[in-house]
Amino acid sequence: MIYRFADCVLDTETHAFRRAGEAVHLEPQVFELIRLLAMADGGLVARDRIVEAVWGGRVVSEATISSRINAARRATGDSGRAQRIIRTVTRLGLQLAVPVTCDGAAPSAAPLPQATPAPPETGPVRLVAAADGTSIAWSASGTGPPLLRAGHWLSHLEMDAESPVWGPLLARLGAGRRLIRYDQRGTGLSDRAARRFATEDFAGDMAAVAGAASPDEPVAIFAASQSVAHAVSFAAAHPTRVSRMIFWGGFARGPGERGAGAAAMGAGLAEMIRNGWGRASSPFMKSVASLFMPGATPAQLADFVAIQLASADPETAVALRQSMERVNVTERLAQVRCPVLVAHATDDALHPLEEGRILAAGIPDAEFLALAGDSHVPLPQSAAFGRLMDAVDGFLGRDWGRDWGRD
């Protein structure tokens, strides 16, 4: 069906939306919310009905609900203050404040153009010296509470924002926040000659960036994969400099600390990296498809290769991979004093769900979130991505307005 209201057109067959003739990207939950309101044709849609339809009846925070309402208003050219299109009926629910027309989507009708997510903001690249003199490149953009996205394997400050893999993640993390990013030592725009890759070195780099970017205010941290161990070390050593942390696909024990099977897989990956760095047809790239991000599109795999080539040479990539083999920060988990959300894909083949459980069990103030999925990389097209981002918003306590999305 095609619904038309104000200057908006919503096509449920092609899952497309446009305003004033321009395609607008909508996340699935936002699309479902607008569809629900359009179907009601000006009728009141109760809060419980919205939760049932959009979240399948799961328990969700008011902040999460308000974030989706605000996103729907932005997409339709509305705001919580104006409520020209989407109206809040206090304590009851929502309704469209404009007329709606509906017609069937003809089989021969041309589909509405699909939009891609707008790239996130980027800021100027700056340099800070780590404790050992290594130059670390960092950047900050946006306004709001500071959120530091920990540097990890395969990042590049000048490429990530436009990446179909990392761009949507950065856009969501940076919404309503001051997003701080940096390239891991030895990669991207940081010192490529670095050869010290101990956990303490990476934690020191994080401390240097946090100190330069947010000297007067503690930072929240989003860390993924091996950068989780670095964040644990940083937070344990500097508890007053961290407000809270979110972990995705992380571990306290490197593969070499988990038994012979995991160690063998790590050694095999290192050899494939050395021989297949930057070649789409190499065994390494096939392992990427099956281990790192099994649901990746051809465009995402191509982007992954491009960032490989721009970010590091093969030997550095191998050295970085090998550096995580014997990581073990389990004894530091109890020293983390801030609240932590530990999220993990249930079928992550690279770092199993059990590694996430170990993190959550060892940190005194930790919540554990297992999300159905098999991708180690949080791909924007996956069902887990939206749920992860909603959880991040709720956990960070972002102020979306207390009365159903009013600005």
From TrEMBL:
CDD domains: trans_reg_C. One of its GO terms (biological process) is phosphorelay signal transduction system. PROSITE patterns: OMPR_PHOB. One of its GO terms (molecular function) is DNA binding. This is Transcriptional activator CadC. The keyword Nucleotide-binding does not apply. Gene3D superfamilies: alpha/beta hydrolase, Winged helix-like DNA-binding domain superfamily/Winged helix DNA-binding domain. Residues 1-98 bind DNA. The keyword Signal does not apply. Residues 1-98 form the OmpR/PhoB-type domain. Keywords: DNA-binding. InterPro entries: AB_hydrolase_1, AB_hydrolase_fold, AB_hydrolase_sf, OmpR/PhoB-type_DNA-bd, Sig_transdc_resp-reg_C-effctor, WH-like_DNA-bd_sf. Signal peptide: none annotated.
